[in-house]
Every structure is written in C-alpha cells, then in structure tokens.
C-alpha cells in the first residue's frame, strides 16, 4: 500500500514534466530557420511562391504560432503525433518501427555498463593502491577519454575487418529465414559492437564513480563492524561495502539514460543500427518538423519513465528511501 | 569487590603501535601490557588520543586494515598468540573468540541490511548454521539483549531503531558466537544518560551470565566506577597506572590519575571552579626524553626528565618516579 502510494506520487510528477517538455520542444524547433515547405520546395528543384504558400496552408504552417501549438497539444493528448510530410507516413508508426532497436541498444549498453562499472570499481577499491587498482584506473581513464566515433570505427576495423568474427553493421542478417533462437543469436552478435561503443565510456565513468564511492564507504564504522565479526575482506568488499556504494552509480545511470540517447545517434549512424537516432538525424536534415517533435516527445517520455524506474529501484536498494 | 584469580583469558604483552608519518614515526601505543580473566571487567581510561582505542583495535588486528602502521608485541587469547595467526585463523577469532562493540551505534550498523541478517551473518560464518537456524538463534539473541518483540524486529533496518536499541543490536552481534572476551570501545559515549545505564547494565548482566571477560575502553570515570573491577589509566600511549577500581578511586598514585579524578569530582568542590591539569599533552612527534607527564606535573623533579619511569609490579602498578599513595 505504502509503495503503491510512492509509485502514484512519482507517476503524478511525470505528467507536468512531459507537458513541459512538449512546450520546450515546440518552441525550440520553431525558433530554427526554415520549415518543411521550404525543404520540399527546394528538393523539387525550384517552386513558385504560390506553390510554397499552398504547401504551408495544407500543413497548417500558415496559422499563428499559438494556434499551431494548441493544435499540437490537443493531438498529443490523443497520442496523434501527426504525419511526416517528408516520408508521407504517420509519425507514430515510423517511431514504433524504430524505437525497439534503440531501446534494445540503450538498455544493453546501460545495464552492462552499470554492472561492469560496479564490478571494476569494487575490485579497484578493494585493491586500493595495489597494481590491480592502478591497471583498472588507467584503463578507465583511457576508455573515458576515447572518442566514441573513433572507438566505433576501430572496433569495426579490428573485429569485423581483421578478425571477421562480428558483423560491422545493421541489426540482423538480411534475407535469412531462420528459427527464433538463431535470430536472437544473430541480433546479439550484431548488438555487441554498437553496445560496446555506446557503453564503454559509461563503464569507465561508473568504474571511477564506484571506486570513489567504495573508498568512502570503506571509512565507515559498519565496515569495521563487519571485519570485527570475522567477515572476510572479499565479502566485506562485495557485500557490505558494495551494497552501500552502488547507490550513487544507480542515480547517475538513471540521469544519464537521456544522455545516452544523444550518444546513440552517433553510434547508430556508424553501425547502421536502424533505431530512433538515425530517424532523428534524417528528420533534422529534412526539417521534418512533425517527425522531429514526435521523436523528441517519445524519447523524453522514455527518459522520464527510465527515471521513474530508477526512483523505484532506489527504494529497493536503499531501505531508508522506501519510507 | 573480589578479583577472580583464574588464569587470564586475554594477555596483552608489550603492545606497541607505530604510525609512519611524513614527519617521522609516531608511537600511538608504547609497551602496553595487561591481563584479563574470565568474568572480569578491565577499564582502560584516558583522554582522547591517548591510544586506548588504537590498542583495542590492534588486539583484533583491525588497525592495519584501514591504516598503515606497525604493531608489535604479543596478544594471547587462551595462551595462543593472535599476532602470529594467519588471516583465516584471525577471522575465526574475530567475532568467534573476541567480540567487539563500537562507540557510535548510528554508524556501526550497515544501513542497507536488516538487523536480523547482520546478527545471523555472524552465526552463519562462525557456526555454519543454516539460514533457518541462524534466524531462530538471532531472534533469541535479540530477546537476550532486551529488544521487545524480537521476531518482528528481525526484519527491520537500523534506521527503524533508536540509538539505544541499535547498541543492543551491536551487543547481540558481538555476542552471537559467545566470545570469551568482549571489547567495548566507548559503548555508551553516543547515548544519553538513561540509555547509558541500561546498556551498561546489559553488558554487566551478560558478562555474568556468559562468564565473559570485558575490556571496556572509556573516558567516563563514572562508567568505570559503575562496572569495572580493575582500571588502567593511559597517558600519551603509555599505561601510567593500574589498580583495582576502589583503590584507584580512593588513592590514585600517579599525578595524572589524581588530576583526572579531581576534574571528575569537581562538582563536590566548594569553590565551584573546574580543576584542570595545566599544560597540554606533548606532541607524539616530540615526546619528552623522560616521563611524558613531567612537563605538566606539579611533583616533577630533576630525575623525571632524565628517563621514563618503569611500572612497579603487583596488583597496584604505577609508572612514576615519585608515586604518592594518598589516602582519602
């Protein structure tokens, strides 16, 4: 009952934040010069002013901005994201086609990054100032400083071109009719390189964060209590200290899911991953306003929901929060 | 008061702890020796920084885990030297042969595990009890330390409990495997006065019931008077006096002990002024060549600054060139 109330309270906060995001998206995009009519006219290789005006009228772009905004908002409430004028298809179906790929990529990257970061950070802190700590810290710094696009290209060169063990792009092998377990394996093998590219920076970040957090927790009295009980150093580190030290990492990971969406545009482009990131990139290039607004709106909902999940997770990980 | 003449359970011999610093080695504990018999409470008193907690931590070998230091001497538990034990064997002593409780119960329990789990862990590690049996025993222990409705409390977290209750849980953890020795490092300092009395009463009761030896580290002379059988006074890393508690309170022999007692009893003083010991503790980096208390001592003579005084033997030990057995 208590936890239901907690969920309800958190969920209630979601509504105004999503509305706020809608307002912000709309304003920002309308401040950018040029609209879909301009682009279509330009692509048709020269059009009369009358034709462009006619296009604007049919898209509703000739109305005052506030009217356009309320029409947009009214449609949002019914989950009607409009039609992409460039691709001539409903925005929602375009997004629905692409979102699963992005969600798969991001979830894999953030989950693996969080788990590995916690593991490496814990080990480094347990071996504080020993050689293993130095190795982990140096590698983390290296991974932290590596640009994503370069890493992606180098991984392709090494694993796809030189070794030939992993596919260099796409999400699945095209033109194969295979049973679903093989399909899962096929997608997984395509997922490895983009997920590593997207996640490695975060592995480094969480390793450093976890290490610092562990070193702080190590100074707390309850660690001495555990040792005085006869708990082994391995168990002190992985159980007693780590359970307390992982809270900041989880918080950070929750905040950074939105960040990661930005990074996934680049990664999806490098690896030809058919996700939202590429769709967004294309929409931006083509001034496909409806599609842009739709993607921004859906991804902001993704981020808000992710934060909600992290909030709830926090209640599980830290009993003091569950009250 | 009677003193058990049994063979000591715990004997500390010539324990020294040195911390290397950038300004030179700092000796936090210098040549500390004492013995402790079953059913007996020995209090170690002294002001902050005198080395009493450092000594307690190094008995269990906990010091080297969190700081760089050098520990020498011998710690004998039932005649077995703990200093020469392997890490594995030492872990069995911690929580098994010697239990320890700490000053701040707010910080000493892990906030993300239930109190029951924290007690049961000890039982599972040392006794190899299966989960169900460990749970039943942990509930018994919660009951033993006077926590009401222990079965419901088992699944609660430290933040659900008051400071006094948490210290009771700490005691339950320390006593889970029925250790021969309980080291209590300032167990009541963070608690308010009524709770202090309850916790001290509990330790006293359990000591008698379980036949433990208790090493009590404190700076509170009132607590010493309440529960200790013998008392050792430490100053600047050295034991300066050790005596049965009644003897020390009636007739302290070392000028430092005398100063401490005078300060503790100042409310009895008609003048209403808090008597103090003039001067400050010497820096551990610049210890005087002779008696470390000499610069502050009103009885100091020329010979006091030449060499440090040794301890006299017997049940009344004092490290002073000119001890004074004043009878009150």
TrEMBL record, chain A:
Which Gene3D superfamilies does UniProt cross-reference here? MetI-like
Transmembrane helix recorded as keyword: yes
Is this entry keyworded Methyltransferase?
Answer: no
Cellular component terms per the entry's GO annotation: plasma membrane
Q: Which GO terms describe its biological process?
A: transmembrane transport
Per UniProt, what is the membrane topology? Multi-pass membrane protein
Q: Which residues form the ABC transmembrane type-1 domain?
A: 99-314
CDD domains per record: TM_PBP2
The protein's UniProt keywords, in alphabetical order, are: Cell membrane, Membrane, Transmembrane, Transmembrane helix, Transport
Q: Name where it's found.
A: Cell membrane
Which Pfam family, an example, fits this chain? BPD_transp_1_N
Supply the PROSITE patterns for this chain.
Answer: ABC_TM1
What InterPro entries is this protein classified in?
BPD_transp_1_N (IPR045621), MetI-like (IPR000515), MetI-like_sf (IPR035906)
Q: Where are the transmembrane segments?
A: 12-32, 103-126, 138-167, 187-205, 245-271, 291-317
Instruction: Note the SUPFAM superfamilies from the entry.
Output: MetI-like
Give the similarity note.
Belongs to the binding-protein-dependent transport system permease family.
**Name of the protein in its database record:** ABC transporter permease
Organismal lineage = Bacteria, Pseudomonadati, Pseudomonadota, Alphaproteobacteria, Hyphomicrobiales
UniProtKB/TrEMBL annotation, chain B:
Q: Which CDD domains match?
A: ABC_NikE_OppD_transporters (cd03257)
| Short name of one Pfam family | ABC_tran
Which UniProt key words apply to this protein?
Answer: ATP-binding, Cell membrane, Membrane, Nucleotide-binding, Transport
- Record's protein name: Peptide/nickel transport system ATP-binding protein
* GO terms under cellular component: plasma membrane
Q: Where in the cell is it found?
A: Cell inner membrane
Membrane topology listed for this record: Peripheral membrane protein
Q: Which SUPFAM superfamilies match?
A: P-loop containing nucleoside triphosphate hydrolases
């Amino acid at each position: 009952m208590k936890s239901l109330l907690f969920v309800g309270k958190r969920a209630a906060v979601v509504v105004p934040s999503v509305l706020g995001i809608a307002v912000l998206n709309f304003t920002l995009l309308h401040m950018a010069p040029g609209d879909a009519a301009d682009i279509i006219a330009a692509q048709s290789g020269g059009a009369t002013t009358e034709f462009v005006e006619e296009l604007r009228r049919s898209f509703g772009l000739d109305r005052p901005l506030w009217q356009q905004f309320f029409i947009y908002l009214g449609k949002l409430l019914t989950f009607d994201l409009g039609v992409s004028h460039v691709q001539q298809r409903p925005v929602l179906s375009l997004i629905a086609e692409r979102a699963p790929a992005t969600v798969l990529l991001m979830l894999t990257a953030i989950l693996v990054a969080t788990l590995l970061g916690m593991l490496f950070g814990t080990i480094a802190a347990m071996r504080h100032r020993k050689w293993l700590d130095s190795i982990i810290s140096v590698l983390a710094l290296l991974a932290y400083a590596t640009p994503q696009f370069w890493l992606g290209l180098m991984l392709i060169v090494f694993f796809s071109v030189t070794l030939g063990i992993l596919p260099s792009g796409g999400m699945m092998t095209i033109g194969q009719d295979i049973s679903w377990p093989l399909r899962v394996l096929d997608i997984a093998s395509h997922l490895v390189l983009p997920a590593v590219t997207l996640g490695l920076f975060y592995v480094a970040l969480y390793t450093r964060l976890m290490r610092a957090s562990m070193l702080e927790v190590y100074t707390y009295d309850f660690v001495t209590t555990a040792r005085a009980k006869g708990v082994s150093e391995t168990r002190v580190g992985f159980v007693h200290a780590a359970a307390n030290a992982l809270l900041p990492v989880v918080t950070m990971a929750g905040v950074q899911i939105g960040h990661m969406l930005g990074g996934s545009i680049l990664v999806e482009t490098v690896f030809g991953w058919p996700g939202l990131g590429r769709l967004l990139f294309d929409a931006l290039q083509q001034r496909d306003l409806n599609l842009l607004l739709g993607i921004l709106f859906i991804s902001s909902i993704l981020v808000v929901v992710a934060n909600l999940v992290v909030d709830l997770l926090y209640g599980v990980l830290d009993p003091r929060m569950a009250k | 008061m009677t003193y058990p003449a049994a063979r000591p359970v715990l004997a500390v011999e010539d324990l020294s702890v040195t911390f290397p610093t950038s300004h030179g080695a700092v000796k936090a504990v210098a040549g500390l020796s004492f013995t402790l018999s079953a059913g007996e409470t020995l209090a170690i008193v002294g002001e902050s920084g005198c080395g009493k907690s450092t000594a307690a931590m190094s008995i269990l070998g906990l010091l080297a885990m969190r700081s760089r230091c050098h520990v020498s001497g011998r710690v004998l538990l039932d005649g077995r030297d703990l200093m020469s034990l392997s890490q594995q064997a030492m872990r069995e002593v911690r929580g098994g042969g010697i239990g320890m409780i700490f000053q701040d119960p707010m910080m000493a329990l892990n906030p993300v595990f239930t109190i029951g789990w924290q007690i049961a862990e000890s039982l599972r590690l040392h006794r190899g009890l299966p989960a169900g049996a460990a749970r039943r025993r942990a509930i018994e222990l919660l009951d033993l330390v006077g926590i009401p409705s222990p079965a419901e409390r088992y699944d609660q977290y430290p933040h659900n409990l008051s400071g006094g209750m948490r210290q009771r849980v700490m005691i339950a953890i320390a006593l889970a495997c029925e250790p021969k020795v309980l080291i209590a490092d300032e167990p009541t300092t963070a608690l308010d006065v009524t709770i202090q009395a309850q916790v001290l009463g509990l330790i006293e009761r359990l000591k008698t019931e379980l036949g433990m030896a208790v090493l009590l580290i404190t700076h509170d002379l009132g607590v010493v008077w309440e529960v200790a059988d013998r008392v050792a006074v430490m100053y600047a890393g050295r034991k300066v006096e050790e005596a049965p508690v009644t003897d020390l309170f009636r007739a302290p022999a070392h000028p430092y002990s005398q100063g401490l007692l005078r300060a503790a009893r100042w409310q009895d003083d008609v003048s209403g002024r808090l008597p103090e010991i003039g001067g400050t503790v010497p820096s551990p980096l610049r210890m005087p060549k002779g008696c470390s208390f000499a610069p502050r001592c009103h009885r100091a003579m020329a010979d006091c600054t030449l060499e440090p005084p040794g301890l006299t033997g017997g049940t009344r030990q004092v490290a002073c060139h000119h001890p004074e057995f004043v009878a009150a």
